[in-house]
Specification:
The protein is an alpha+beta fold. It folds into two domains: 3-165, Protein Transport Mog1p, Chain A, CATH 3.40.1000; 183-291, 2-Layer Sandwich (Double Stranded RNA Binding Domain), CATH 3.30.160. It has five helices and 14 strands. Helix 4 crosses helix 5 (238-248). The longest helix is centred in the C-terminal third of the chain and has 18 residues, at 191-208. It is globular. Mean pLDDT is 78; it is low at 1-8, 10-37 and 168-177.
Length: 293
């Protein structure tokens, strides 16, 4: 699986939907906390979203849905690329028109649809969309949902995510090594990365026997990313086996997505959201850990 998928979740750590989906990617988003009296707060999958305007700019070409207020903005970059996420909200149920807007903007901007699924956030109805540029170097995401605010009113919430990836010679060499049947070298980690690896790896080993940690990254204080090499190729049947293993370890299943050749799973435990992503037919699993509490 391309390492960029792993770092997508990390770069957007404070924006990820807890309990989506099927997901966002998901990742959805949270706005800065510290709300004053009278501020309306939305609960999107257990994550508070303050309806306060923030400064930022729209995703180029895509723009913003008419009548919506920007309530979140994040513009990050790492060694893999740049990651922009913008959140919008508006009082009322504008779900259908906003969903049509998202599909139209993606097509107008030259992106092709990869997948479209329903959100599975309690108390929410919505859709998550994923698009890709023709060259595969850019990805566009939309999450459109309707939730109840702390004032009892309905609000439409939109997340627009845009990722542009650099060409990575490191990723190319790793892929070449795997295609030739060579097992990548194990890396050593310390501190919080070691702590989380020691929690994750035994669960993965229940399904694959013995996985190898090939990459580990910490993004801010709220996100950790790991990439593991599996001794055998990932299959679509592994999705259920992974769900069973994590549930047995005390994690609550929040999302299961099997779309084409991709697997995406989400779990929640003690204010921690954990996402497992994999491409069927490869030897790699990406695991993102997001501390939401």
């Amino acid at each position: 699986m391309d390492s960029r998928i792993l770092y997508l979740g990390i770069a957007l750590a404070v924006l990820v939907v807890v309990g989506v989906v099927y997901i966002f990617s998901a990742p959805l988003f949270t706005a800065p906390l510290g709300m004053g009296p009278g501020t309306v707060v939305l609960d999107f999958g257990g994550m508070p979203i303050s309806l306060r305007p923030v400064q930022g700019h729209d995703v180029e070409c895509v723009g913003a849905p008419e009548g919506f207020t920007m309530v979140h903005f994040s513009d990050d970059s790492d060694e893999y690329g740049t990651h922009l996420t913008v959140g919008y909200a508006r009082e009322g149920d504008y779900y259908e028109t906003t969903l049509s807007w998202a599909r139209s903007r993606a097509a107008t901007c030259g992106f092709s649809k990869v997948e479209e699924t329903s959100l599975a956030v309690p108390g929410t109805h919505g859709t998550s969309l994923h698009y890709e540029s023709p060259d595969g170097d850019k990805e566009l995401y939309f999450d459109v949902g309707v939730v109840k605010g702390s004032d009892g009113k309905e609000y439409t919430v939109v997340r627009v995510g845009y990722d542009a990836y650099y060409e990575s010679t490191e990723n190319q060499s790793t892929d070449a090594g795997e295609s030739s049947g060579q097992q990548p070298q194990e890396i050593s980690v310390s501190g919080d990365l070691k702590t989380w690896d020691s929690k994750i790896r035994p669960i993965l080993n229940q399904v694959y026997g013995s996985v190898v940690l090939t990459s580990a990254t910490q993004a801010m204080s709220q996100g950790f990313g790991f990439e593991y090499y599996t001794p055998r190729e990932v299959t679509s049947a592994d999705a259920q086996a992974l769900v069973d293993a994590f549930v047995s370890a005390g994690w609550q299943q929040m999302q299961v997505e099997i779309s084409g050749s991709q697997i995406s799973l989400g779990f929640l435990k003690n204010n921690v959201f954990l996402e497992v992503d994999a491409d069927v037919g490869t030897h790699r699993l990406s695991v993102t850990v997001l501390l939401t509490g």
